[in-house]
Design goal:
about 180 residues, alpha+beta, Nuclear Transport Factor 2, Chain: A, two-stranded antiparallel sheet, about 20% helix, about 25% strand, globular
C-alpha cells in the first residue's frame, strides 16, 4: 500500500468575536421634521403645535388668490428655533428653507462664535426661551417681529422681518439686541 502525502494546511483562525451588549435606549425618540422641527413645548405657555382651527388665513392683494398663514403663531416658533441654532442646540441646516441667504450666513457666523467661546465640557446655567412675541404686519405678505428672549434672569431682544415668498414665510432680516 502506498502512502500519498497530502500538503499540510494551517488551520484558519477566525478573528475573535466581539461581544455586543444590548443597551436599552428607552422609548423611541419623537418624530423630528426634516427642514425645521417646530413641534416642541414652549415654556411661555404658547401652543407650539398649531391646530387647524387656530390658524387664521388672510387674503393677499385684491385679485390675488393665494392664502397667507398667520405670522404670529409661526413667529414664536421660528425665533425659538433661531435661538437653538445660535446656541448650537439645533443644526443650522433646519433653517435653510426659512431664511434668506444673508440671514443664513449671519446665523452661521454667530453660531461659530458661540461654539468658539464655549469651553469644552462647560455647561450652561440656563437655556434661552422666547418670553414674548409682538408681530406687526405693515402689509399682508410681510411681518415684523419683536421678541423678548430670556436666559435665567437676563433678557434680550430679537427683531426679524418675515416676507411671504413662494408659499412660505421667509426671514429676510434678523437682528439681536
Amino acid at each position: 500500500m502506498s502512502t500519498t502525502r497530502t500538503p499540510q494546511t494551517r488551520p484558519i483562525v477566525a478573528p475573535a468575536r466581539r461581544r455586543w451588549r444590548h443597551v436599552d435606549a428607552g422609548p423611541p425618540s419623537p418624530y423630528t421634521q426634516g427642514a425645521l422641527a417646530l413641534t416642541y413645548p414652549l415654556p411661555a405657555g404658547l401652543d407650539a403645535e398649531p391646530r387647524l382651527t387656530a390658524l387664521t388665513l388672510v387674503n393677499g392683494e385684491p385679485g390675488d388668490d393665494r392664502q397667507i398663514p398667520d405670522a404670529e403663531q409661526w413667529a414664536a416658533r421660528f425665533v425659538q428655533a433661531v435661538l437653538e441654532v445660535v446656541s448650537a442646540d439645533r443644526p443650522i441646516t433646519q433653517l435653510a428653507r426659512w431664511t434668506a441667504p444673508a440671514v443664513y450666513t449671519d446665523l452661521g457666523r454667530r453660531r461659530e462664535r458661540v461654539v468658539q467661546h464655549r469651553r469644552a465640557g462647560q455647561v450652561r446655567a440656563s437655556r434661552q426661551h422666547v418670553a414674548t412675541v409682538h408681530v406687526s404686519q405693515p402689509a399682508s405678505d410681510c411681518a415684523e417681529i419683536a421678541a423678548r428672549v430670556t436666559a435665567g434672569r437676563r433678557s434680550r431682544a430679537v427683531a426679524a422681518r418675515l416676507e411671504f415668498v413662494r408659499g412660505r414665510w421667509l426671514c429676510t432680516a434678523l437682528d439681536f439686541g
